[in-house]
Amino acid sequence: MFIKELLAASALLILAQPVLSAAPAEKQAKQAKQDKRDPDAIRCKRIPVTGSLAQFTRECHSNAEWDRIAVESKRNASEMIGGSGACTGGPGCSGGN
Predict the structure, then answer these.
(1) Pick from 15, 17, 83, 88: CA 20 to 30 A from residue 63's CA?
(2) Distance of alpha carbon 60 from the chain centroid
(3) Has this prediction a pTM greater than 0.85?
């Protein structure tokens, strides 16, 4: 009796194998069709963890979100250095005059 149940279970697993592997194949085909420059395409980047030489975090965003993040980061950097980057004679400016 146990052998019949074991054979039936293994037969189900063998028959279900194509069904189980079909989902990843469809997903790969969809990703292959999607243009990497498409604003809605998802890209993942490895971001280094501050203070670690080997540890990374993984961030995934759409291309449009990555573009927005880049523009925002550039704007913040420009604001930090005073917009033009020129020394205006304020505190910390050693060669303005």
Answers:
(1) 83
(2) 3
(3) no
CA distance 84 to 60: 32
Tokens for 36, please give them: 């990497």
Distances in whole angstroms, Cα of residue 10 to Cα of each of 2, 4, 21, 23, 71: 12, 10, 17, 21, 55
Output b/e per residue, 45-72; b: 16+ Cβ within 10 A: eeeeeeeeeeeeeeeeeebeebeeeeee
CB of 41 closer than 8 Å to CB of 62: yes
85: three-class secondary structure by DSSP: coil
User: In 10 A of CB 14, how many CB atoms?
Assistant: 9
pLDDT in tens, 59-89: 999 999 999 999 999 999 998 887 555 666 6
pLDDT score of 12 more than 70: no
In sequence order, the 6+-apart residues with CB closer than 8 A to the CB of 47 are 56, 57, 58, 59
Supply the DSSP symbol for 49: P
The single-letter code of the amino acid at 89 is G
